[in-house]
């Protein structure tokens, strides 16, 4: 009889425990998915910057650099990406690198000379899927956009 009373008193314990733990588990699930999508975007943006730098150091035109960098963003929307390419030269009088200058075309190749550093930067606006939960990750807190960016520097061949 006493054992039956103890069993009756524990009947709703599992429901209460689930009600306490379920929101935490759901939040954790959304966090894992959101973080995974951001990491995917970071990897793709790094790949795009690296691919753009690889073609830039062999003298490709700025149009080719941009098209190769954006094509490396395959699962992402390349129209949303910003690709910036710059170069700088070694200044022998000061013994240091000069300032970054926008890379332009010089005929069928870019204007960087052999030994110059070329930097390709790629920025991509990642749209958070659950802005209400992870709005603090967003840039400026509004709009649910987290800008993912990468830069690669290589020497001109």
Unreliable residue runs: none
Assembly state of the chains shown: single chain
Beta content comes to 15-25%
What's the story with the biggest beta sheet? 4 strands, antiparallel
Globally, the shape reads: elongated
The amount of helix comes to 40-55%
Instruction: Classify the secondary structure makeup into a structural class.
Output: alpha+beta
Plain-language structure description:
α2 (13-56) packs antiparallel against α3 (62-71). The chain has one domain. The strands form 3 sheets. It has a 4-stranded antiparallel β-sheet with strand order 4-1-7-8. It has a two-stranded antiparallel ribbon with strand order 2-3. A hairpin with a 2-residue loop joins β5 (105-106) and β6 (109-110). It is α+β, with helices and mostly antiparallel strands. It is built from 4 helices and 8 strands, in the order αααβββββββαβ. It starts with a helix and ends with a strand. It has helices spanning 2-9, 13-56, 62-71, 131-134, and strands at 82-88, 90-91, 96-97, 101-102, 105-106, 109-110, 117-127, 145-155.
């Amino acid at each position: 009889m006493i054992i039956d009373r103890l069993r009756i008193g524990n009947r709703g314990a599992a429901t209460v425990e689930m009600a306490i733990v379920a929101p935490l588990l759901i939040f954790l699930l959304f966090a894992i998915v959101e973080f995974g999508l951001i990491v995917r975007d970071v990897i793709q943006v790094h790949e795009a910057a690296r691919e753009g730098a690889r073609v830039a150091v062999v003298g490709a035109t700025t149009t080719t650099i941009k098209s190769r960098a954006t094509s490396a963003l395959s699962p992402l929307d390349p129209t949303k990406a910003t690709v910036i390419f710059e170069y700088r030269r070694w200044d022998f009088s000061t013994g240091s690198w000069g300032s970054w200058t926008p890379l332009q075309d010089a005929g069928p190749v870019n204007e960087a000379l052999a030994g110059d550093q070329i930097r390709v930067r790629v920025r991509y606006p990642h749209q958070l899927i659950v802005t209400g939960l992870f709005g603090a990750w967003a840039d400026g807190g509004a709009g649910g956009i987290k800008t993912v960016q990468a830069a690669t520097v290589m020497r001109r061949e």
